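Lecture notes, part 5. Sequence design as translation. It can be helpful to think of inverse folding as translation between two languages: the language of shapes and the language of residues. The source text, in structure tokens, appears below.
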């Protein structure tokens, strides 16, 4: 048995989880004998009390039985184990909270969820997963969106495929792994195509793509492809400059700060959103329904994403689901 010394999970609990996992895999069968408490403690160099506590827990669950003078034996293959879920997000945001709330609600009393945030930092991502290995029944992960993609894949490969669910972003080479994802490149092309009539009122499209890590580069690729195909003049900028907010332009913005800045500059210049200047924002919120008489948005259904991921986990399905997206047209376009 391997003990993860960096894990926050107590060793006795790791023993319990390992025995349950071995039963579910068929590596331990009905009637198989376990090491005695003393043998286990000596072989793994851990305290006798730790093993005793683990065996007591397993007895209470009905998985093992103790026979006086003989030892401990597997007495049931019905583990009825609750899912213990390692939920790994790239960042905290209103959208991720929607995913989290929907996921936890759908899991209900079928599991326990621990959430970790890696902030698109490769080292933190690797460290958190390393500490969690062997301590959870399921690993639901939003991979970091960074240039070191091979390193990210290498870390994810350490998680048993049957226990891994990739969330939000599709990764090549994980065909047999459950996933609920956005197709960032295709989604922006399809969304802008749905708004083509409105976009043709303007002469130029600008994608405001932040320099900071954590945003899918596929968005930029899809935007470029759309503009080239439709013959729009376009550019990609990292921030909003006052002298760039002029009539005849549409801004596609990812961050809320950029959205607010465009609105403030447009108001200062007496430019009307949806007539002089167009704005499309990523990710729906209640505020965008009413802000500046309504902001047009490109958004996936974050609640559905959390719900679908939870159902895949509960039902132990290995499907890969492209989560639906929508273009919500409002006054700003």
């Amino acid at each position: 048995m391997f003990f993860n010394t960096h894990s926050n999970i107590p060793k006795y609990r790791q023993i319990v989880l390992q025995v349950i996992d071995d039963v579910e895999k068929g590596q331990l069968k009905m009637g198989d004998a376990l090491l005695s408490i003393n043998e286990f403690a000596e072989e793994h160099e851990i305290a006798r009390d730790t093993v005793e506590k683990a065996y007591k827990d397993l007895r209470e669950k009905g998985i093992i039985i103790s026979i006086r003078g003989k030892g401990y034996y597997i007495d049931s293959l019905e583990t009825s184990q609750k899912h213990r879920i390692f939920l790994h997000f790239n960042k905290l945001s209103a959208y991720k909270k929607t995913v989290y709330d929907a996921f936890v609600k759908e899991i209900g009393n079928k599991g326990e969820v621990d959430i970790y945030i890696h902030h698109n930092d490769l080292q933190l991502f690797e460290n958190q997963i390393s500490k969690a290995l062997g301590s959870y029944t399921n690993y639901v992960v939003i991979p970091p969106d960074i240039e070191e993609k091979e390193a990210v894949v290498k870390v994810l490969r350490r998680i048993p495929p049957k226990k891994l669910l990739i969330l939000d972003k599709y990764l090549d080479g994980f065909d047999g792994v459950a996933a609920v994802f956005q197709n960032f490149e295709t989604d922006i092309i399809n969304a802008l195509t749905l708004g083509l009539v409105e976009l043709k009122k303007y002469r130029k499209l600008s994608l405001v793509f932040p320099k900071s890590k954590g945003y899918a580069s596929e968005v930029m690729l899809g935007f470029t492809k759309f503009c080239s195909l439709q013959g729009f003049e376009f550019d990609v900028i990292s921030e909003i400059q006052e002298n760039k907010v002029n009539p005849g332009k549409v801004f596609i913005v990812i961050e809320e700060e950029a959205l607010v800045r465009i609105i403030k500059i447009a108001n200062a210049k007496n430019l009307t959103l949806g007539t002089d200047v167009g704005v499309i924002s990523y990710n729906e919120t209640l505020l965008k329904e009413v802000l500046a008489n309504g902001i047009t948005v490109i958004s996936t259904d974050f609640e559905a994403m959390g719900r679908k991921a939870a159902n895949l986990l509960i039902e132990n399905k290995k499907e890969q689901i492209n989560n639906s997206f929508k273009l919500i047209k409002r006054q700003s376009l």
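The translated text above is only one of many valid answers, since several sequences can fold into similar shapes. The chain has three domains: 11-74, 83-182+302-323, 185-300.
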